[in-house]
Write a structure and sequence with these properties.
Oligomer: single chain
Structural class: alpha+beta
Largest sheet: 6 strands, mixed
Number of domains: 1
Strand order of the largest sheet: 1-4-5-6-7-8
Number of helices: 4
Helix content: 10-25%
């Protein structure tokens, strides 16, 4: 299945890219859960558009009731004072698959991030996405980033490199790509192995390595999951 342009006509007028990205994340998670992961690991998709966060003030108005022995005591919740400052926030879109180790309680070990147009919109959004990805790597979490967004030409891999304070020799030139990162130790020194694939419209997608906590590496067949969603959603 050749890589299609989901962000310009004619396809953008026939299908919403948000629905395709959500379905693609689910297809990747399903493939990982259906034999792609070792025993003791599982994958879940995580979809959040615009980082919608709502605070329902009314939920704080009723006092909490607790029991103290044979008595019932009404406890008034503590209310924070007004903030001294309020600065603009950035809540990046997230079309992701997260992989967990189930032993000892779910522990995040790897993530696949599908880039959205909102992630590439402005410098603040690009910084927020890069910081999110860098935080995975700082925690030793394996990472794959897939960017098929044709409507904005920024390269978020290069922003990740900048956040990691690495030289431009680690940067890429294209704006469509699939990258994989493996945080690991070699001879007692931390390093991040990278697999960089520039993508082109009409070409097939690659299979990329997904590192689980920097130790076990499993393949993510982007072409198979992409083709499956294209057949089911586009025809």
């Amino acid at each position: 299945m050749p890589l299609l342009d989901h962000f310009h006509p004619p396809l953008s007028q026939r299908r919403h890219w948000e629905s395709f990205h959500a379905a693609w994340a689910s297809a990747i998670a399903d493939a990982l859960n259906d034999g792609g992961l070792p025993e003791g690991f599982f994958a879940e998709e995580l979809i959040s558009v615009g980082g919608r966060i709502e605070i329902d003030v009314a939920t704080f108005e009723e006092p909490e009731v607790v029991s103290a022995g044979s008595q019932t005591v009404a406890v008034k919740p503590w209310a924070a004072p007004p903030p001294t400052q309020v600065m603009p926030g950035v809540y990046p879109d997230s079309f992701a698959v997260q992989v967990y180790r189930s032993e000892g309680g779910p522990t995040l070990v790897a993530a696949v991030e599908l880039v959205s147009p909102g992630n590439k919109d402005r410098q603040r959004q690009r910084n927020a996405f890069a910081v999110k990805c860098a935080s995975y790597l700082f925690q030793g979490v394996g990472l794959v980033v897939v960017d098929i967004v044709t409507s904005r030409r920024f390269n978020l891999h290069n922003d990740i490199v900048r956040i990691l304070e690495q030289p431009d020799s680690f940067a890429m030139s294209g704006h469509l790509y699939a990258t994989a990162y493996q945080p690991r130790q070699r001879d007692g020194e931390p390093e991040i192995a990278q697999w960089l694939h520039e993508l082109r419209l009409e070409d097939a997608l690659p299979t990329v390595p997904l590192a689980l906590a920097g130790v076990v590496v499993v393949p993510v067949d982007l072409e198979a999951s992409y083709a499956d969603v294209c057949r089911r959603r586009i025809g």
